[in-house]
């Protein structure tokens, strides 16, 4: 196939002038961050934020001009995840002397509230009006901050959070993209129900025990954030568990399968987001008339959200994270973003831009707290020899 | 709450056993949604009766056996370990055991009073011993009071029953297979929790 | 007509995506977090913050705060729980704190606790049968704290 006959995949590319015009609101919205940084007066921080702001907006323009969403989103999403430990761990060392939380931190509620803990706190909060997580309620990285972020992004994007806002999903995505070919190709489809089973069991167990069971026992990402110091045999077992889970679910299996195993086949928070996908205005749709049943989208979907039934019905499963991989690889351009309530023949380009905006804004601002802070730490390392 | 937890996490297993016989029974009767709901409610009423009987038995067992021993932690811990292992086996088996839903027995017993068939079926189903029921039995026996014991089984009943209401709307039956797999996974996790709790209790609450 | 209305609703909600995300991210910086907490009446689980202080004993240079006994379950109470005792401020404490604590509100001491302020070594002497053991001794910022494991006396 010559370059001139190569099939175009992804959304229709846009003329540069149109892309710049459509990007203008994004420049302005995201400029809030460099403006805030200027007030700090710290040169290294201002430089870091400006670099980040420019980089992200260039990526947004490229998304529009090339019509490709997945590759740019993926790079930024991975950057977000990798940046988190680069600033979080030095921050923990500064405030607690270690990335490990002492018992004092738990009894004085000094842990940082992770958005992924949201699903566990809902039932006790509704029944007893208590928050079962040892963090501050408001301010800083407390419960209310995470709750607002979760609520706003869920209403706007549904399970799109998992591909545009999650602090950890980028790790899964990174390892899933390292190999060119999958070693394990056939995965029993019943595993896609595990996150829902975990959601049910963990919500119930956390309500009964009034403690965040998933955080204590099953979260693989404590390895890149914070965890309880090994002051007891129980804590040691917990540490071993999350290290094993991280390497199995986030590193090895994604490497071997080229899929986001932790996100698609384990994460109970993702299961909650899947259920909430129903109330989100955005969706991915497949045009059965254009589809030639090549099933490449089914093979490539990182979260197992497409099956043969999807190709017939035109709808992915509720677990779709709207990462746009299927949209960008479909050789028949049969897959696109769609706004519920609008005609199926409505312009997919409009739906795409309307989806990219909240998705990208979420990605940018969450990254600001991670990529920006990580860049700042790196600049500090270069200029002072220490990240602390 | 633990009764409710067990019921909710294991209710899909109960549904798996009972839906294949309850649904055709609903279908062959040719009823509308309201009539189907009445049938399901009778079935559930019968199950509640069976569970209350178990609650009474659990209190009696607790009073006779647990309160008289100073090895309460040991006994309950051992029960948790054994029963959670049984629950894991039950969840992971491929086929439901024969006669799991007691339908034919109820039909024969109440053949002269057809209106009582679902009630009888529910009662006999409620008496069917299964690992989640035995775990609830252990919890109930350790409460120390009759009210406490009955409450555990009431909550167990509520937890399992949530899955049966959609049967009245047979369209929901299409998702039973999905719910079944979700329930199996949930049941495994709950079983592991009880296994761990049992080990802790059995080892005398060793400070880990 | 219905189709047009649905489309308008769809596009409107789609456009609201950006403000929703911005409110979610930035709202807490503008006090919405505190407003949310006070409006909902949410508090931290007593299993983490020790519950409310029910008794304060003034020793002149320092104070003893005795919290309520915590047996909270999602519904009802558990068979076992704890009581938390704090001494503040840390830098005004004597080298050794030795105090009898009354936890259940009946006016009679239920246990005695002795704590070495420097190395956190503690000894518990239970007076009531439902006082089980010392759960831990901690030094969160500015205070000294012990948690004593209890069996629920009402169960």
Plain-language structure description:
The complex is a heterotrimer of chains A (388), B (208) and C (155). Chain A is mainly α and 388 residues long. In chain A, the strands form 2 sheets. Chain A has a two-stranded parallel ribbon with strand order 1-3. In chain A, strands 4-5 form a two-stranded antiparallel sheet. The longest helix of chain A is centred in the C-terminal third of the chain and has 37 residues. The termini of chain A are far apart. Chain B contains 8 helices and no strands. By secondary structure, chain B is mostly helical. In chain B, helix 1 crosses helix 6, helix 2 packs antiparallel against helix 7 and helix 3 runs antiparallel to helix 6. Chain C folds into 2 domains: 39 residues; 106 residues, no CATH class. Chain C has 4 helices and 10 strands. Strand 2 of chain A pairs parallel with strand 1 of chain C, so a sheet runs across the interface.
Q: What fraction of residues of chain B sit in β-strands? A: under 5%
How far from one another are the termini of chain B?
Answer: 25 Å
Q: Tell me the domain tally of chain B.
A: 1
Secondary structure: helix percent of chain A: 55-70%
Q: Which band does the percent of strand residues of chain A land in?
A: under 5%
